Amino acid sequence: MSPVLIQMWHSVGLGLGLASIVIAVVALLGTLYALAFAVVGIVASRGGNEDAGVSAAAGRRLPTTNFLVVIPAHNEGSGLTATVQSVLAQNYPHLRCVVIADNCTDDTAEMARAAGADEVLVRTDPENRGKGQALTWAFDLARSWEWDAVCVIDADSVIEPGFFAALDASFQKGHAVVQSRYDFFPAADSKNWLQQFGAVSKAGENSFVARPRECLGLAQLLGGNGFFVSRAVIERVPWLAHSIVEDAEYSLLLAQQGIAVHYQERARLWSRQASSVRDVQPQRVRWASGIWQLLRKAIPILFATAWRERSWRAIEEIVMLLMTSRLVLIYLWVLSFAMSFAAPSLFPITWSLLAGVAVLQVLYLLLMFRFAGDRPVPFAGALLLPYYVFVVLSSQVLAVSGVNRHLWRRTSR
């Protein structure tokens, strides 16, 4: 090999090595970013939050918010009864429970009526299927009804007592869009690793993302289940979010209008999980597909906002969106590690950074198992992480490739 080619080879290798260092630094900063929120979430849980006084005041007065409760349901006849009954069992005076039986081929409408729903709206529009389209249709029908805020609850959920009283406290506080605490039921079978890690991961989203972001006054994303939007906001920003991740899409539409999404942890509901990889993967592929589409659309808009308004919040919101799946940090780690072999002379720097990322990621995981949920989870459950990562990773690969991007196909639970 000629001296010129050798020099070029070394230059390319050095360039890749330097790039691996940059990527490792980004992964380290992203890990510290996530860890900082986790610490804030833990501290906030220990010290209580500002809603404690609001909840106490709410207990001394009658709630006044008139909630329209909308339950979109596609072939959910087998599990819908528990959801409707948990709504009707609330000791709350101003509720109207409406079920949307959307393009159903089972007995969803009949089961909703039998469970005691105030209204059952049957929608048949196979060319425009999906939760977002169903909500747009229902909100349009509800214009002539009396309500102050609409609360959306998935048909596989059960809400805790005091749910609407807590949401009423937020509404009276002036919050026009609020996401409740949305958890997964723990695994009924202690050997079901998928459900175990799913429940822990969901608890982490609540305790280490939503809770600290609310404490710090940062932007939130709607979680798609257990949220309310005031009538004034719906009239100002109509529900035109029809993507696979309609909740996140609507959150960004609200942000563009300067309307904040708040988080109310004292309002809580639980959702059932899929019990097998075969059942959960189609749902995760749809979700990942929607997130990729949302990122392509939202990030340029947020960058433009950040440049035009010199807004650090817009930059932080970009980071939040990119960190929606924390697997991005694993991708960066692997990429940096692979590229580092192009420049052996830089091994000490790159591998020291990557070792730091790995240690902090393990710390984050241990904190999640210890503090995210209602009670500590055995640390042995962390050994399940490789299986869970494989399921999520494979779903994201399928999503990027465009495989199985079906809208709102019911997930077996």
- Strand order of the biggest β-sheet: 3-2-1-4-7-6-8-5
Corresponding CATH superfamily of the largest domain: Spore Coat Polysaccharide Biosynthesis Protein SpsA, Chain A
Choose one word for the global shape.
elongated
Query: What's the average pLDDT?
Result: 86
Poorly predicted regions are none
Structure classification: alpha/beta
H-E order: HHEHEHEHEEHEHEHHEHHHHH
Q: How would you name the oligomeric state of the polypeptide chains in this document?
A: single chain
Helix content: 55-70%
Q: Tell me how many strands there are.
A: 8
What is the count of distinct domains? 2
Identify the CATH architecture of the largest domain.
Alpha-Beta Complex
Describe the structure in your own words:
By secondary structure, the protein is of the alpha/beta class. It has two domains: 7-47 and 294-401, no CATH class; 51-272, Spore Coat Polysaccharide Biosynthesis Protein SpsA, Chain A (Alpha-Beta Complex). Helices cover 56% and strands 12% of the residues. The chain has helices at 3-47, 51-58, 80-88, 108-115, 131-141, 163-172, 193-216, 231-236, 246-256, 277-309, 312-322, 327-340, 347-372, 385-401, and strands spanning 67-73, 95-102, 119-123, 149-152, 157-159, 177-184, 227-230, 262-271. An eight-stranded mixed sheet has the order 3-2-1-4-7-6-8-5, sandwiched between helices. Helix 1 (3-47) packs antiparallel against helix 12. The longest helix is centred in the N-terminal third of the chain and has 45 residues, at 3-47. The radius of gyration is 23 Å and the shape is elongated. The model has no long low-confidence stretch (mean pLDDT 86).
